Amino acid sequence: MKESEESDKKSIAAVVSWASTSGKTDLLDSLQQNGCVGEVALLVPAESDESGSDESGAPQTTQALSSSPHTILEANSIWSSFAVADVVRWFEQTGASHLLWIFSPAVDLPKRGLQRLLNAAVDTKAPIVYADYLEQRSEGQATLHPLIDYQPGSLRDDFDFGQVVLIAKTSLTEMNSEIPIESPHFDSGSWYDLRLRLSELGPIVHLCEPAYTVALVDEQANGESHFRYVDPRNRDYQLEMEQIATAHLKRIGAYLAPPTGSLTAETEAFPVEASVIIPVRNRARTVADAVRSALSQQADFEFNVLVVDNYSEDGTSQILAELAQEDSRLVVITPSRSDLGIGGCWNEAIGSDQCGRFALQLDSDDLYSGPDVLSQIVATFHESGAAMVIGSYTIVDFDLNPIPPGLVDHREWTDANGRNNALRIAGLGAPRAFHVPTLRAIGLPNVSYGEDYAVVLRMTRNQIVGRIYDSLYWCRRWEDNTDHALSLQTKNRYAVYKDRLRTIEIAARQRMVKESQ
What we know:
alpha/beta
């Protein structure tokens, strides 16, 4: 046997999280036959009266797996601190150099795929290595499921590592030596805490090739997972994730105390107190509703509505021209360029001489929920000294009937820690409104996804944020939404972009903290 082969032999200990209702014992057989794998453990939920097997015969409980020759690690929650600690203790006694953690028994991991993961781990000395995979549908061929690269801004708790990760023992040992004995217990977030701590020890490596196959199960309904973090049923879970993320930011020197930043000075007079800004392209079906919703606002100050018509071709322009004839408060702006995204259209509006002191967001297919929205938002600006005010909204169908999850109020925001927690979550809500001089100094990126998140992150770095938790906005979910039925490639591109925004923001905050010391 060659020396390199001998060094690889039994260098991996594997643990399989067996909480899924899919998968059979084929995975255990393949691991047992793999020359690189030594000991194998199964992490299973504790027994309960309801436990059993699914229709395919997949083992679901300790009892069902009791005949397995492998170590059984039992836990009430396989994501709890107790479960992860048990896995780490078991792994350390195996003597292996790497921990292979498989999150589902529905995985088919060939010997060559595991060897590729191990080679990457040895070559890079990375704390964690993960890889793309293939999805196997029962009725067809396997298709590639590409993942995205991990970066410092990938600290959201739903980052997708796939179903297989390889963790270096050296990193686990170093991490364990730095964890205080009084470290808090987590019911659901221990894997999240583990991978954040490991990421602090070195770059996490993504192998951009398929290393294994996963038997595909039914995906969650489109849009359902998008709002998971604002579901009140998940409140305890979210508080735990916030605690973990905040501790990580403190360890890497990116945590910020509550803001004391001042607004950008107003050096000019404004034509009106507030402007509603509506970027639009090809929304002939909805734009009139949006505009009328804005014009119907009742306030004791002057306001206007700035619609940036981004070269519509479906009759939207004609509709806007007719509405402008009816009400002089409607100002239709034609951009100076034809290559603008939503953020670029916003820059056109806030840079206009007709823009007011405060700019309020309204999408071209949404509506304000009442006639006093502008009044509430402007009053909040004056009362709080905020540079940005964010309201709450209700998800509705095209006909304005409420649909799950209903009210989205982002109560995970707190004045004390909101701007740190903002780095973990996907957004902070709507409608958004801004102090225009402060917004002009920052500007928005010329994109049509994440432009709002970019400016929210930047403003929360220094500025006070005002919040309104009453529903101010009807957000329509329908087939023409820009985030409707996105392809995996588009989802990945959007996820990479938001992670990059966080990476940049973390670097800026680390510099701020360092300069303040």
